[in-house]
# Entry
Amino acid sequence: MSAADKHAPLPKAAKAKRPQFFDDPGTDHLVSMFLELASEVWVLRERLQALEDVAEDKGVILEKELEAYAPSPERAAALAADRQAFIERVTFVLNREPPESAGGD
# Structure
């Protein structure tokens, strides 16, 4: 039996109530969105730097090619789908939880 077989799979979503750190739930939502975006940006920066380093090590200079790049229609459609999934990930907290109040006080 492998080590992976000894552990039950983790649930895909937490079942507990989301913790609240600020008086206004909207502030918590914005902080969550900011942290998700910051995480995505950092991963992309690391990956891009690795790609540039590998290309440079192989003697490939990509700057002009990247500036002139235009995706094919198929690639543009795939990028649009990826962009939509990214937006949904970043804003999931806004889409999953109803507002605490309608602001009519």
Remarks:
- Helices lie at 25-57, 63-68, 73-90, 92-96.
